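#struct-pred

JT: dropping the chains for the assembly here, can someone run the whole complex?
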Amino acid sequence: MKKNEFDCIVIGGGHAGIEACHAAAKIGVKTALVTIRKDRIGEMSCNPAIGGLAKGQIAREVDALGGLMGLAIDATGIQFKILNSSKGPAVQAPRAQADRHKYQDWMEQRLEQTENLTIIEAFAEDIIVENNAVAGLRCSDSGVYKTQTIVVTTGTFLRGQMYMGDDWWDGGRIEEPASNKLSASLERIGLQIERLATGTPPRIDASTIDYDKLEMQVGDKEPKPFSFLNKSISQQQVPCWITYTNEHIHQLLIDNMHRAPISSGKIKGTKPRHCPSIEAKMLAYPDKKRHRIFLEPEEAEARTIYCNGLFTSVPKDVQEKMLHMMPGTENARIIRYGYGIEYDYCPPVQLRRSLETRKVGGLFMAGQINGTSGYEEAAGQGIAAGINAARKVQGKDVVIFGRDQSYIGVMIDDLLTKGIDEPYRMFTSRAEFRLWLRSDNADRRLTALGREIGLADSDRWKLFSNKLEKINELKSYLRSHRSNSMTMWKHLGQPHNSLADNLAGLEYIRSKNYIREVIDAAIIDAKYAGYMEKQNRLAANFHSREKKKIPDDIDYNQVLHLRAEARQKFSKFKPATLGQAGRISGITPADITVVQIHLKKYYRS
Amino acid sequence: MYDMTETVIAVSSPTHDNHVIVRLTGPGTFDILNQITKQKPARKQATTKVEICVDPELFLDARLYLFVSPYSYTGDDLAEIHFNSNRALTEALILKLLELNVKMAGPGEFTARAYLNGKIDLAQAEAVNEIIISSNRFQLSAAEKLLGGRLANEVGSISQEILESISLLEAGIDFSTEDIEFLTAEEAVEKLTNINKSLENIVENSIDCELLMELPSVGIAGAPNSGKSSLLNTLLGKPRSIVSGIAKTTRDILSGHMTLDNSQCVLFDCAGLLEKPEIIIDQLAQQAAIESLSNSSLVIFCVDISKENLSQDIHIRKLFNNCNVINLATKIDLVRSASLPIHIKRLNDTFSSDFFGVSALKNRNITGLKQNIDSKLLQHLIGPKDVETKYGLLLNARHKGAVAEAIENINQAISEIKDQNDEVAAMLLRSAYEAIGTMEQQDIEDKVLEKIFSNFCIGK
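RK: done, full complex below.
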């Protein structure tokens, strides 16, 4: 293969792009990453943290498949915490603060060392399409690269426009240019493009904060790693700090509301409801006396502090005044002001479940371009798109992630069936198989798949098979031994049982030298065993309907008796299975039955 | 499930009626009509007279009502064949159609097809079911209320409350890092306990559809010659209305079907109540009569007002002890109007009850008697509750099962919340929500559908 020829080109070196190019290269196809600045690979444009509720589960899934996110944060995290630790294990999730520079360096180095991967510093400008399929990519370095597949992971860069107060300027991220030519190229191909918006808070100089006035928040005593490959975290943990807004700040914001872009009506893109700006909070929660603000260090030896909860795009002078009215930041110096950003995305109804566009064969999309928000959501799609792009090159079947298998599957299915009206973020409540889609068992859900597709390497596989064997051994011991006149397995399923706490101390268990993860897995499985049955019963329809495929060429105008609304929705979303069809909003069971009947006729003829 | 590619038939009229309606629906409707009629009607919305060839020798005059998809009850092409006939001819036509590969409709299949074609929603389909089998107007109005979405209103607000609890619980899980307390465990428990109270209330104040299905029976009791037979004939209209005899003993208990303003009932003449049955056959008859009386919803006890010696009547009155009794002084045409109150008082005193005078022969006070029967039947049906206002929600077994399932799930959720297993509680509440949701249109599983539709009567 020539120097300028690749099997797969990934556009963008963010969290989606990293996993996509790493996965494709690892699977064994010749891959290139085209990115504007090599030194910004893995940049944390917003919050310097990985994980969180539901997001932590995705990060674990990416790791279980053989991705990089978990390894990177384990190596560069500065505060680890399990969230929801007082709630059930199914909704517990890891989160860690990162030293964002180290995280970035780690990712850049790792990609540079990855076999089959070339990093090209350039703007991607034009996707060359021949016969409805990707043929190449024209870049600003005046090169035209031949390729069969492209994964677009452009984040907020497509026609990115930033704003603060009355100011608007072009840009993809602070101090970085927007990518405007690629948007035009996507439009020429015939893809529909719309706008979304998001924002980021101010960063302040860590040395200008009065820590005595702040509440300290520390991480877990025993930090738990994200990656299934790591046993422990060795680096020093640092605290975060908490402060609160007050009524003076609220008054300031209300007085200056006319200067905030949200009141000008200029912002066309929808912003995420789950991440409102502080000025938007004034309008939405006028009665709330104070809002909590986390001051999070961005480095191990803190130089900058990220003001989590203070998303804003008010003018500079208001940002300064606001900080100076808050306990602990009275004298803070702003290093980077908060801003909003509006960008292009391609509504994901244009995608197949492999994340390939319907319009152009070989063109895949992942991350914010699909309307999502968050590093983990991006990484989850990135790894899925990278896997499928590589398999397309290899002529192998697409890999579809099921809703019953992973949050990645829930996310992709939601994107294809629900449509986007704000940046999509994962919540555990989106998963009907939540009791199974846990952080602790991501390896049991996905590592076999990662192995099969050539992404999880043999070290990972060995570690996993060994652990799985131990878990099964322990579970069968629990099922065959009694405690409190029932099997230990059943006893562990009872509420408030002491056995769970004492299990590790039992002589047999001690003699086996099981690692904590093995014991925990058995306890959690036992706890949920009864509920799992119920969950599966509730979802009984799920499996039968997921199996019923709807052919691509079905013309809903030919389906007799279909309601007009259903006809229109099905034509738009083009569901791949009856299950997907049923999840589209506004679709009734009667519509599904009608389609089902049509399919019978279709297959008969 | 129903195969919607098939064309099916059903006989939609009462079997004893001379006017027969055969309904045909499905994609092959017009094909079939072309094969059996001389005129070969075009596929369009129309009414037309045709001759149907039941047999090469036999032509049947019929009127066709043609409905073209989707403008029909089922949403498929549909034809109603109306003709005057007898049973034999009807059977011959059906056999002919079956030869042409038409299938007999399964129970409720017409309504099921209407549902599957999206012509009606599930609650409507169920309401049609209730109307088909509703045995009195009282029940019909409840069924109509169901059609009008009363069920949806009653349960809808509770569904919303469950949904709210789910979302608060989910918020507590997915947004636990915010400094907001969405719902404390105590609040959740209180909220859910109240929801369960409302659900229990619905069940308590509801009426079983199944209970109403069986027609109440009204027995006419009295000594021989107390005017039972003529009363029966007068109430039923014509002697011909006596449609069936229940051959339990050598003496039939004659019965007929009576329609009143608010209710319907089976009326039976309880002959064979004698003071001293002497032969064995009379003893058996008496036993049968007493058994039927004790099982009936209402007894009309007849005493001939002109009779001097009441000892036989007094004995017979002691043979049954139903609480729902109308005491009737019959043959009031035999006494002078002026002395009627005295005669009634004599009966009232003798039996310590209030007597109501009628004359079957002269049709006097029969309307009053019918009203009396009507209101006594309604009271019997719905118990002591206020007839006019409080007949609650009409629930069938599936509805009740769904509400019971929701209550059970909510109770479990309450205990999981107390154990801090919010994620499990949320799942249980979802299934409670879905259980109630199956009354309407959400996520209905094929099994539920099969169950509902197999309870259907054929046709609309």
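JT: nice. The two ends of chain A are 45 Å apart (CA to CA). Chain A is about 40% helix and 15% strand.
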